[in-house]
Amino acid sequence: MRRLGPSDIEALATGAWILGTGGGGSPYHALLELRRLLAQGAEIRVLDPAALADDDLVAVVSIQGAPLVIQERLVDSRLIARAVRVMEEHLGRRFRAVMPVEIGGMNGLQPLLAAAHLGIPAVDADAMGRAFPEAQMTTFAVGALSPAPLSTVDPRGNEAVVTRVADWPWMERLSRRICTEFGSIAATCKAPRTGAEVKRWAIAGTTSRAIALGRAVHAARAAHADPIAAVLAAERGRRLFAGKIVEVERRTTTGFLRGRAEVEGLGEDRGARLALAFQNEWTLAARDGEPCAMTPELICVLDSDSGEAIGTETVRYGQRVTVIVLPAAEIFLTERGLAHVGPRAFGHDLDFRSAFAA
Amino acid sequence: MRRLGPSDIEALATGAWILGTGGGGSPYHALLELRRLLAQGAEIRVLDPAALADDDLVAVVSIQGAPLVIQERLVDSRLIARAVRVMEEHLGRRFRAVMPVEIGGMNGLQPLLAAAHLGIPAVDADAMGRAFPEAQMTTFAVGALSPAPLSTVDPRGNEAVVTRVADWPWMERLSRRICTEFGSIAATCKAPRTGAEVKRWAIAGTTSRAIALGRAVHAARAAHADPIAAVLAAERGRRLFAGKIVEVERRTTTGFLRGRAEVEGLGEDRGARLALAFQNEWTLAARDGEPCAMTPELICVLDSDSGEAIGTETVRYGQRVTVIVLPAAEIFLTERGLAHVGPRAFGHDLDFRSAFAA
To answer: Where would I find the S-Me-THD N-terminal domain in this sequence (chains A, B) (predicted)?
Structure first.
């Protein structure tokens, strides 16, 4: 068990936003809440998944919805705690810990807030190693664990439990419909996981990894070094493209933020263009029409000077950006993994090709 | 407690279809299932609400959705029994009896089937005295009883419980969204009611009333008398219009069947036209542009020869129909009742005016 301090949460916000690969929501408001809770003496505790007993019960949480809406309707972290309580009432059992479904963006921070409200730790692990937009895009789904039950709540006092589903896509359909009716944002507690399931299927250490990544960026900034080089070194990534955002198309539809953006090359990329597609997260990058990076590998759009991540809801004309790609968790590169999160899962008619292939 | 026999269920199907005021779904398939269950020796038992203990728990059930879809996707009555079981699992308590939320149409018969599957009786009462399309259009909602929880299931094995809502319209919105995602049809168990609540707020005796109405129609047919006159006598109704259906506009949208139909006058109504609006049920009748009957009073479109009801999903060009109006339950004529089920609740910009006013 480890207690997080002020510098940890600052680093976590920077690192999780990069790992969000455009989605997961901006962590800024969650960071403000974490700062306040820490200042008030709250304990933010992180638990190594290896320390879980096999029959411990872990609440897997996230804010579901369209990132743009999350910017407009601030999330009270007590709402996620409420989603966990609704699940406890449904199960008639208490949780040992909380866990983020995705380390990316705000959803890498919110579980810490919920855990603090509930007086339990957050597990140092997630089920994506990044952010993905849909329910079945998790290691748990790839592992064919049960998709149900799921609790979902909104700030008006509306609460529901999806108690059983035919399959993972049905969980996505049903929970997304409820989320859309709530206003395209909902606090959710996904199917509870046992300690054994977390140890077998979760991606361990991703909160620590996001903190380390954020620290590397902060250290580079403090040393007037290149923060993007620091990201690439920390995550064994590849630089794809640098330029200026010249086009953004964005629509909030069926509970998602979808669209595309275009980058006009600068420096060594002058004369070229990079097209980016997104569904909450960046899903495909194509240089002059040729796909050069794709899901499940992490396409990250960073501010060229600060290395700060830019989200699909905050990308805008004129930003100077550097686009990089980071490796995906190995489980997602298997045949079953790619069926859940490969390019075809996002409607791109492409076989997966790694940006790290020779 | 009373056991229903073969002639009871035949009469119930005819009577409930008339009281459905165009909606509640055609009872034909439910009748076929009831016939089979009876032939197999199942007990169909009806319980007087006065026989309920105050703390008995009653499951209030219906098939929710668009009547046209219900014609296309047959309902297995075990699905409603499953919705009741999901609610029992959620509550951790067993039900004493089942009750229809609406006596109108198929939904007046399905609860008897579910009750037979579950081995418990059906209460001789409902919460509408007819059929209405939305969750908050019940005596329970007018009485400001709790709208939650509600369980909803589909034949694929998808199941959800709406555990809490801000108010009745939110229950309608959320449950309708889930229903729409299920394919515009769902088996639902509404908020459980205590025996005390049923005795205070339900409309008592409506199953018996529907059976008596059906018997009156069957007796008139057997005697070569006018079945429509028999309906008017049994329910103290008024004849509005007779003619031929000459126009039907129908769309299945947001979980409802909506549209309008036009009747061209015949006989003493020759030269006049009657326009009918519907949202699952007939909501408004206007003669040559002048409203002459409206919700919550029961507008019933009957086959001019047989007195058989015609539903909003079965009305079609060329049918010879007689349109009648039957009185509404008194609770719906109060100011609070009209707020829930008056013409404005269906988007008609009209003050309620009774078709029985002098």
So the answer is: 8-163
With beta carbons under 8 A apart, name residues in chain B contacting A160. 160-163, 174
Contacts of A178 in chain B (CB under 8 A): 174, 177-178
The minimal CB distance from A166 to the residues B92, B156, B164 is found for B156
Domains in chain B, CATH or no CATH each = 2-206 (3.40.1610.10), 228-346 (2.40.390.10)
B258 has which bridge partners?
A: B251, B279
pLDDT in tens, B126-172: 999 999 999 999 999 999 999 999 999 999 999 999 999 999 999 99
- Under 8 Å between Cβ of B61 and B98: yes
Question: How far, in Å, CA of B174 to CA of B149, rounded?
Answer: 12
pLDDT confidence bin for A179, thresholds 50/70/90: very high
The secondary structure element, H or E, covering residue B222 is helix B206-222
Asked if the Cβ–Cβ distance from B90 to A86 is below 8 Å, we say: no
Q: Can you give the three-state secondary structure of B85-107, one letter per residue?
A: HHHHHHHCCCCCEEEECCCCHHH
Least Cα distance to A284 among A243, A321, A312, A245 occurs for: A312
Among candidates A205, A184, A210, which has minimal Cα distance to A300? A210
- Does the pLDDT at position B91 exceed 70? yes
Cβ atoms of residues A139 and A203 within 8 Å = yes
Residue B358 has pLDDT above 70, yes or no: no
The token pair that represents B183 in the structure block:
């394919």
